[in-house]
Amino acid sequence: MRPKVVITGMGVVSALGVGVEANAAALMHGESGIGEVRYLPTARREFPVGEVKMSDEDLCRSLQLTASPYVSRTNLLGITALREALAQANLLNHPDLALVSGTTVGGMDVTERLFPEPLPAGVRDVHDCGASTDIIADYFGCFNYTSTVSTACSSAMNALIMGKLLIESGERDIVVAGGSEALSLFHLNGFKSLMILDRQRCRPFDRDRAGLNLGEGAAFLVLESEASAKQRGAEILGVLRGVGNACDAYHQTASSEDGEGAYSAMAQALDDAELSPFDIDYVNAHGTGTPNNDASESAALRHLFGEKLPPVSSTKSSTGHTTSASGSIEAVFCLLAMRHGFIPYQKEFQNIDEQCVTPVSAASVLQTELRCVMCNAFGFGGNDSSIILSRYE
User: Fold this and answer.
1) Is 136 inside any structural domain?
2) Is the separation of the CB atoms in 17 and 52 below 8 Å?
3) Do the bridges between strand 17-18 and strand 238-247 make them parallel or antiparallel, or are there none, so unpaired?
């Protein structure tokens, strides 16, 4: 029999704020952290972004680190979120922890800062994704296992899936999993070249949606076997009940019209959780705001749930698309929704699109008991993932 995988800690930093409580309050009030570029050194100021409202220097001071051109913002955001998760789980001094982190940008902001001058040898030690995970882990000194997942926008969610598998296989009792991603010029210019950036705040599932807003942030969850959590006397915040991952390989960047990969990932997660579609009380959609993604995800949701579609919303309308970190950030949001009894809603939504599901767009359903929620994260190349979180009984 597989061990139950529970959650005993969480930490998050996003455009909505630093820390779990700040993000919870902002979500409940329908606030948005999306606005004009402030910290990213770009001339493309016409595109709103969801930046964390702290400079690199501010983040370094809060972590008692020395600011340097060699310090990556990805790492600073990751350390900030991870510190909160470890503290909540009372694991800051635990000697035997595993870290699985998702990122795609890694330390690219450092490389961009120094380019086009000849890059010093030290840049090689901070640039790639695996180095980012190791630097985050080294700050704490309590991790003897690290692994990095880089599958674009499903990276952090796939890190959670890997963490669950490590615990169920008996390899580990405790795995800290999530992801971190800072905005970069590569990021912004790359998505601009795809012509999928909105010049206004994004409007997922809206008839007049015109693209996404990029965001940044980090979130980590402490995953633990139920037996380990009970032995430590840890507070159990929820259960990672089911996971699913599929790759339809339909297109390098676009989603398939019928949402084949998304449907398969969600169906796998339900099967893994031993639940039916009728057990899901809320879906935190991938919901980027691009015409293609939202129509494709809507097709998959309708295929899975039929006429009994649960409430759906996209929190990217508040944070921007945090790309590789989105899966863990939104998993934290789902846990907060369950614990506080509310459904995150989209203030920016106005116009129904018959091709799309209609998201929750008003605060009238805030007081809602949620027992099981689904969270989606879909990456380029059709690498689609879905998880189901539930209350701990």
Assistant:
1) yes
2) no
3) unpaired
